[in-house]
Design a protein that fits this description.
258 residues; alpha/beta
Length: 258
């Protein structure tokens, strides 16, 4: 995800020489990393007089307690962005200081193709100007939404953060169903993939038109689509399954937050 954001910023016109990456592992670096980007293996290689505008934490939440504290030295002028699931604003205030400007963000993997959506929440130290700047950077990889209640972040994680996996699994299931009807595996996979991807793009280009409206538009009375939807929508079958799945993801998100 850090690599996706980096790519978006470069596409947006952020100067490579204004970016510093701290990454000890060579294998974790983007393969097309610009030579003009400053790369450090540890924070100790960053000069004490450095004054970063934005510090992005793009590491696993399990190591955040070790990674974040040394960056507290920049708190006077920097805004901290975290994309670590389960790590709350309170967690970061304890690691970086109560006066630190902190924005917690939940992006999703379509950010890699600039079609993601990021949901963010800021603490009281983040000014309107800083919030606008962070929103501008996040918009490089897709849509941005802001919330004021951090308690909603578990639901955001369950719906959009984990959501791409649900769509991928739907594609798998459609493929297997096609194979079961006698289609060759490669054709079934191509049909399922193109149908899901194309439908997503149609929905994106339809703007605010509700998904239910799009569904009705392709459902002819007495036709094949209606026959399938009677199975999926009968007794709210699919809705109940998705609700249970997303609830499980939200519960796990709360557990990770401790």
């Amino acid at each position: 995800m850090g690599g996706a954001l980096l790519g978006g910023w470069l596409d947006q016109g952020v100067a490579p020489q204004s970016i510093t990456i701290v990454e000890p592992n060579d294998d974790a670096l983007p393969p097309d990393l610009s030579q003009n980007i400053i790369r450090c293996r540890t924070i100790d290689e960053i000069a004490n007089h450095a004054a970063p505008e934005i510090i992005l934490f793009a590491v696993k939440p399990q190591v955040m307690d070790d990674v974040a504290p040394p960056y507290a030295r920049f708190a006077a002028g920097a805004t901290y962005l975290s994309i670590a699931a389960g790590k709350t604003i309170s967690d970061f205030e304890s690691l970086l200081g109560r006066g630190a400007a902190i924005i917690r963000v939940m992006p999703n993997t379509p950010a890699a193709v600039r079609r993601g959506i990021s949901v963010a929440i800021a603490n009281a130290a983040v000014t309107d100007g800083l919030r606008a700047r962070a929103g501008e950077l996040l918009s490089a990889v897709g849509e941005v939404a802001w919330i004021d209640d951090e308690g909603l972040m578990d639901a955001v994680t369950a719906l959009s953060g984990s959501g791409p996996a649900y769509v991928f699994h739907l594609t798998e299931c459609m493929t297997e169903a096609g194979i079961g009807l006698g289609l060759p595996g490669d054709l079934a996979a191509a049909l399922a993939r193109a149908t899901v991807a194309g439908s997503g793009e149609l929905m994106r280009q339809s703007g605010d038109q509700a998904a239910a409206s799009l569904r009705r538009n392709v459902t002819s009375p007495g036709g094949t689509t209606e026959a399938a939807l009677k199975v999926l929508m009968g007794d709210d079958a699919l809705q109940k399954l998705m609700t249970e799945a997303i609830q499980a993801a939200a519960d796990r998100s709360r557990e990770l937050a401790g």
